[in-house]
Design brief:
single chain, about 270 residues, alpha/beta, TIM Barrel, 8-stranded parallel β-sheet, globular
């Protein structure tokens, strides 16, 4: 069995962004030809909502959307924007179904001006997800301790989700998984020589991991520095198999099963 015969799920990709406006059709063809049968599209703000919906409508058997407000777009008016985003989540057009509330979280890398607003937006969206029986997809950058403080407030048996683009150490990985209902999203950083995940992932059960590209960002080797796309997920899966000392087939099967269960996807 070749790698292209084994189906993968890209649990986090932004193929709806304008970086793909000139060749989105070709990108999707390469995606399918590479064996990626399903992609999950996390929303980032109100402006991106119609873009997510357009891809869900055009590729209904392959594209699944999320609705949420990314921390980098949280400002003093975040409440109004989130209200509009959640209106789409609760009343989607054309009977579309969303698989998660995301992408949400904390990002203190670029600025800390709206740290308080980011925290409140995260808690609000996490509670909305619990009320709707949906998982959350968490973005965290330069804010692990702050995020864990918020998680301690909101976590219970009804909260589940993915720590997207995980790049923390073993301590952060174990603490994230200790919440009970969470998986770690592994992407292109796992292929970087000094990415650090080669020291973390051997200690993490494969069942606790899902695959993602975070396209167009963080391209894996051998495409590092170029625009990322979902077809490159194969490189991430191969690297994870190497790190874990298992077959590509096992990585594909286990991570796919985890994604299907977490997001309620059709097998």
């Amino acid at each position: 069995m070749t790698s292209t015969e084994i189906k993968l799920i890209d649990t986090h990709t932004h193929l709806y962004l304008d970086q793909f406006d000139d060749d989105r059709e070709e990108v999707m063809i390469r995606c399918f030809e590479s064996g990626i049968e399903t992609i999950l599209l996390p929303n980032i703000n109100l402006e991106s909502v119609p873009r997510v919906l357009d891809m869900m409508k055009k590729w209904p058997k392959a594209c699944y959307g999320m609705m949420g407000l990314h921390p980098c777009y949280v400002n003093e008016d975040w409440g109004k924007e989130l209200e509009s985003i959640m209106a789409t989540l609760d009343s989607p057009p054309d009977d579309m179904d969303f698989v998660a509330v995301g992408e949400i979280g904390l990002d203190l890398y670029w600025e800390k001006k709206f740290k308080a607003e980011q925290s409140e937006a995260f808690l609000t969206q996490a509670r909305m997800a619990k009320e709707r029986g949906l998982p959350i997809v968490i973005h965290v950058r330069d804010a692990w301790e702050e995020l864990f403080t918020l998680m301690d407030k909101v976590n219970d048996e009804s909260l589940r989700g993915v720590f997207h683009c995980f790049t923390g150490g073993l301590k952060e990985a174990e603490r994230a998984l200790d919440y009970g209902g969470f998986l770690l999203g592994i992407g292109g950083v796992s292929t970087y020589k000094n990415g650090g995940l080669d020291k973390v992932l051997p200690s993490i059960p494969l069942e606790s991991l899902v695959l993602e590209t975070d396209s167009p960002y963080l391209s894996p080797v051998p495409h590092r520095g170029k625009r990322n796309e979902s077809s490159y997920l194969v490189h991430i899966a191969k690297k994870l198999a190497e790190i874990k000392g298992v077959s590509f087939e096992e990585v594909a099967s286990v991570t796919k099963e985890g994604a299907v269960k977490m997001f309620g996807l059709k097998k």
